[in-house]
Amino acid sequence: MDKQNISFSVKAKEELCRVPINKNCCAVAELYGIFLYANTFDLKQIRIKTELTSVAKRITMLIEKVFNVHIEIKNIGQRLVIEINDDKLLEKIMTEFGYDTKPYISYPLNRNMVEQDCCAASFLRGVFLISGSVASPDKKSHLEIKCSHIALCRQVISLMLDLGIEPKMLT
To answer: Which UniProt keywords apply (predicted)?
Structure first.
């Protein structure tokens, strides 16, 4: 990417990828946000696509830190793809996030994962890294998080309200 043409969102995501993770609970919470907003998150597969090397590397670092497993980053076209297909690892991940092994159409937000403010912030960082965008501060402030499941969207809005953030939902 040409340094002068990098969007403000890309710069924000790259900066967020440099935020140190001091507590294991925050690493788990950030990874939880990433997985909940992944392209695929279910009992058969977790699949995440990104265009940013920094985001892909952060995700694999978090997976290694939390689950002690190395995951390769695949190059597919213009995208970097992280896939988890191992049944035992998927079961371990679901258990870590407080889900049983029955399939859901959309996984609800487990508020136990984000009880502490530091974990809630880490969770939202993960969500933003995967599905967020932000306008430059010299323009009207505007942050977007795309969510394909309305129930999850409402739960994340509730979390934001608890943190003093007042989002709007557009459908």
So the answer is: DNA-binding
